[in-house]
Amino acid sequence: MATQQDAAVDTAVFLTAEWLSLVLLNYAVPASIIEPFVPRGTQLDLWRGEAYVSVVGFLFANTRVRGVAIPFHRTFEEVNLRCYVKRAVAGEERRGVTFIRELVPRAAIAMAARVVYNEPYMRATMSHRIELHASTRRRAEYSWTRGGTTSTVVGDGLGETAIPAADSEEAFMTQRHWGYTTQRDGSTIEYRVAHPVWTVSRIERAAIVGDAGGVFGPDFASILARAPTSAFFADGSAVTVHDPVRVS
Prior knowledge:
Blueprint: E1 2-3, E2 13-29, H1 31-34, E3 43-44, E4 51-65, E5 76-89, E6 92-104, H2 107-117, E7 121-123, E8 125-131, E9 139-146, E10 149-158, H3 169-174, E11 178-182, E12 188-194, E13 200-209, H4 213-216, H5 218-225, E14 230-242, E15 245-247
Parallel strand pairs: 1-15, 6-7, 6-11
Antiparallel strand pairs: 2-4, 2-14, 3-5, 4-5, 5-6, 8-9, 9-10, 10-13, 11-12, 12-14, 12-15, 13-14
């Protein structure tokens, strides 16, 4: 793994894919709950003075690792729990995310992410249902089953998407181009995630149906059982994930 204090130089591309039909359920939380997950060298990024976690469900499509498509691993679901962090580098503010838990149905993808990034991936049986036709009610769902229990991220009543205002909550949650992950030795890696600005809409009704605490942990069970503070749908786009760099 490369080592560079400011990670200013682009690294090689690790993964290309499309991240599509994203459902984001956002929860205001006490900062003390997520501070243990904040990687060294970063700090919590607050929206109007409050800390947030988001449960995000989306489709991984046309996935290639080092330019190679892995058979039966090109298109699949992911659901993750993330919080928002930032890091100052030579006068630049890098706004990113760190993941508390990531669910995927493909063992090889989970293994590669754990080995290369030490990302907290977990394998689960997963499915999705997406209805985006203008003639029907727009809806997107992402489900996972683990230990015999099924839970679902539900977004019902998706609005028409548009480019969000730069100072909006939608932009705060979706315009994130850096990932940060704590390593086994306590250090932090940083990696760039390149994609265009996503078109976003509000969701009329959003919820997690089932027991999210089973995979996201007991500290978040009661938080994720309530209605989200806000909920968005993003069309998504092609993305490029770069190799990680260790930061000081």
